[in-house]
Amino acid sequence: MSPSTALFPSPTPLWQAATTAVLRGEGPSPLPGPWRLMLLGDGSPTRHLRLLTGHPVAVRLVAMEAEPEPPGQTPSQLPREVRELEPPLLRRQVWLDCGGETLAWAESWWNQTEAEQHLRDRNLPIWLSLTQGRSELFREVDGLALVNSTWLEEGFGTQGPFWSRHYRFFRQGRELTVIREVFSPSLEQWLGPAPRQPLHSPS
């Protein structure tokens, strides 16, 4: 898939888990344990990808652009936590590759001043950018969903839908960014098979 010079439209959620269940770390019962760890755990996904595959994570920047005010997406496409960030906002999108295989896509929303401070090297994974100097961070996973989009299917080279999550980073109680990640089914070779249809989750 050729590199894009503009942001993709956010993927469409086909199903979303109850927020209360996600905050308690309760994934849908048919979702296998390794996938629950990947989607609902508070560890670094780029580190997990490296540990799983044995390859470093290469970040391919799609674009980083100003988010229109109001945002140029429908409310159903955006995590509601984006509205809690102080405008003006930037949105950044990347593909994550390991060993030449595209395993994830991510987008993040930032206050413009925060982005200038924390994303000086736009090709670094966000986790590395934010933890330089060993700064302490808190990650809160807020959402779990199945999403789809034609450009995601092209990027992953397979038919959707795809598992997605979104979370926030906090430092000293202050919200820094909202991040959404979408994972390729290719991860099943390390995590085992995962269902890809709407699931019942605890409320």
Structure notes:
The structure is a single chain. This protein has one domain (27-100, 108-191): Chorismate lyase, CATH 3.40.1410.10. The chain has 203 residues and is an alpha+beta fold. The protein has a seven-stranded antiparallel β-sheet. The longest helix is centred in the first third of the chain and has 9 residues, at 45-53. The radius of gyration is 16 Å and the shape is globular. It has seven helices and seven strands; from the N terminus they run E-H-H-H-E-E-E-H-H-E-H-E-E-H. Strand 6 (162-171) and strand 7 form a beta hairpin.
The CATH topology: Chorismate lyase
CATH superfamily: Chorismate lyase-like
Sheet with most strands: 7 strands, antiparallel
Q: Domains counted in the coordinates: how many? A: 1
Alpha-carbon distance between the termini?
39 Å
